[in-house]
Design a protein that fits this description.
The protein is α/β, with parallel strands linked by helices. 29% of the residues lie in helices and 19% in strands. Strands 1-2-6-3-5-4-7-8-9 form a 9-stranded mixed sheet, with helices on both faces. The chain has a 4-stranded parallel sheet with strand order 10-13-11-12. α1 (5-13) runs parallel beside α5. It binds threonylcarbamoyladenylate and magnesium ion. Threonylcarbamoyladenylate (TXA) binds at residues 22, 24-25, 27, 51-54, 85, 87, 89, 101, 104, 106-108, 112, 129-131, 167-168, 170, 181-182, 211-214.
Length: 308
């Protein structure tokens, strides 16, 4: 069911999770202090209980309620990227409940850049918002994706297609070094303009207690088996780029290889379309550039294929 922002505010205050648009992906929202609503978010998604949630604020001033330590770099990061798709993992006080942070001393924060959701946060207060998809499945970048995953169990505010199409980049200061815990809609190269050096990506590989608990789980996966390769080894379905000659059964176009923004925006809708069409196997054209937004696109395809 599609609801207005006024209905969404009333539902959230009564403890009913509502899916809201952001510039990255749709989020499944509950008020930070409404513990019963947050439990419902975990249950609806089938989300593991040890995977913490991001707290979404209306503005950077909202951080002061939860975070005492500030630094000039932190200010520069929030000035440069908020509102926007950068999530910062920071030491936080105990005003953030345990069910949100999963007993960690840190909490993840971001200020989403979508006018409807900003108005809702201003009225209702800070919201937790994991991506509004069933755990493990491709994220939702349109209201209809949310309705497909949750049916009548989750009301949704329709804010159109998400402009970025990939989740926020997660950045944390760890032992004096700013590191990326999830590649996302803001590239490491853009963050380097503020930090003065390129932040390293720290993967959860080889540990059962990664800095980012979400790294333990499979993500973004359609039912279709994705075969990632720069070259096509056989016929069959293709997930590839505009302007290239593929032939084959069905060709799913991510966008132009000269526009990572377009590819990012279309990625999850394309993965979902494979399932709608009952595709069981697809070759993914991995012949695309490295760096910038392409790093996150490659990461999502590898995760979706189960090779990362
Ligand atoms: O773009 C986004 O960030 C979207 C939109 C809706 O805002 N939200 C989103 O939430 O992607 P979710 O729950 O799907 O992913 C949050 C990630 C998880 O991998 C989680 O483990 C990590 O953030 N995370 C949350 N709190 C953390 C913390 N204190 N330390 C390290 N990682 C944390
Ligand atoms: Mg997610």
């Amino acid at each position: 069911m599609v609801v207005s922002i006024f209905e969404a505010c009333a539902l959230l205050q009564s403890g009913q999770p509502v899916a809201l648009p952001t510039e990255t992906v749709y989020g499944l929202a509950a008020p930070v202090q409404h513990l019963a609503a947050i439990e419902k978010v975990f249950a609806l998604k089938g989300r593991p209980k040890n995977n913490p949630l991001i707290v979404h604020l209306a503005s950077k001033e909202g951080l002061h309620e939860y975070v005492t330590c500030t630094s000039s770099i932190l200010n520069e990061l929030t000035d440069a990227f908020w509102p926007g798709p950068l999530t910062l993992v920071l030491q936080a006080n105990d005003k953030v409940p345990n069910v949100v942070r999963c007993d960690l001393p840190t909490v993840a924060f971001r200020v989403p850049d979508h006018p409807l959701t900003q108005q809702i946060i201003e009225r209702v207060g800070p919201l937790v918002m994991p991506s509004a998809n069933l755990s493990g499945r491709p994220s939702a970048t349109q209201a209809e994706h949310v309705l497909k995953d949750f049916g009548s169990a989750v009301p949704v505010v329709d804010g159109g297609a998400c402009s970025k199409g990939l989740e926020s980049t997660i950045l944390m200061e760890n032992e004096g070094e700013w590191v990326i815990l999830r590649e996302g809609a803001i590239s490491a190269e853009s963050i380097a303009f503020v930090l003065g050096c390129l932040p390293r990506f720290v993967s959860g590989k080889g540990t059962d207690r990664p800095l980012c608990p979400g790294q333990l789980y499979r993500h973004y996966a359609p039912n279709a088996k994705l075969i990632l390769n720069e070259q096509r080894l056989a016929g069959g379905n293709v997930l590839g780029f505009a302007g290239r000659e593929y032939g084959g059964e069905s060709v799913y176009i991510l966008g132009g290889v000269d526009s990572p923004e377009e590819v990012a925006k279309n990625l999850y809708a394309c993965l979902r379309r494979l399932d709608d069409d009952g595709v069981s196997e697809v070759w993914v054209d991995m012949d695309f550039p490295a760096g910038g937004l392409w790093t996150a696109i490659r990461n999502r395809l590898e995760k979706a294929a189960g090779v990362e």
